[in-house]
Write a structure and sequence with these properties.
Blueprint (H helix, E strand, L loop, with lengths): L12 E5 L2 E11 L6 H8 L9 E11 L6 E10 L10 E5 L2 E8 L6 H16 L8 E5 L12 E6 L3
Antiparallel strand pairs: 1-6, 2-4, 2-5, 3-4, 3-7, 6-8, 7-8
Protein name: AraC family transcriptional regulator
InterPro entries: AraC_E-bd, GyrI-like, Reg_factor_effector_dom_sf, YobU-like_regulator
Length: 161
């Protein structure tokens, strides 16, 4: 990796996350097929503000339901208040309260894989902590704009207590 593509990742803050009910569009991916995730987001964006029970404009990318062979489900979604009246086209997940290391991603979305690589291959092994078997998620602030690189993108990594 050359100097121009190196990603600066600040030390994480630690938080106890609250219960979240996330609904959106989802699909199954592997590390080799993650290039399909931006396409999933493109399909999801027109649904913003139209999902029953949507709480706000904060969006989430949730990685969950790992199969132990490198496969996982990814849901591009928003927080909702209830499952009542949620159309079948949407996938949903409950994110239970959990301890997290929270990393702020700086830079373009193209550099997001490098940030994840740093978290999993460098920070986690050196931290002495272990990842919990719980959903990991990206949290995009209401003012997040991927084209202008404005707003905040956080990666919430679940940790064992």
């Amino acid at each position: 990796m050359d100097e121009q593509t190196r990603v600066e990742v600040a030390e994480p803050r630690f938080e106890h996350g609250q219960f979240l009910l996330i609904a959106g569009l989802g699909g199954r991916f592997t590390q080799d097929t993650t290039d399909g995730i931006p396409e999933l987001w493109e399909k999801f964006i027109p649904h913003l503000g139209k999902i029953p029970g949507q709480k706000n404009e904060v969006t989430f990318g949730v990685c969950c339901n790992a199969d132990g062979k490198g496969g996982f489900e990814y849901i591009a979604g928003v927080e909702i208040s209830k499952l009542d009246d949620l159309p079948d086209q949407y996938r949903w997940i409950e994110v239970q309260p959990q301890d997290y290391a929270v990393f702020e991603h700086k830079g373009s979305l193209d550099q997001l894989p490098e940030t994840f690589q740093y978290i999993w291959k460098t920070w986690l092994p050196q931290s002495g902590r272990e990842a919990a078997d719980a959903p990991e998620f990206e949290r995009y602030s209401e003012d997040f704009n991927p084209k202008l690189h404005t707003g905040t993108l956080e990666i919430w990594l679940p940790l064992k207590a």
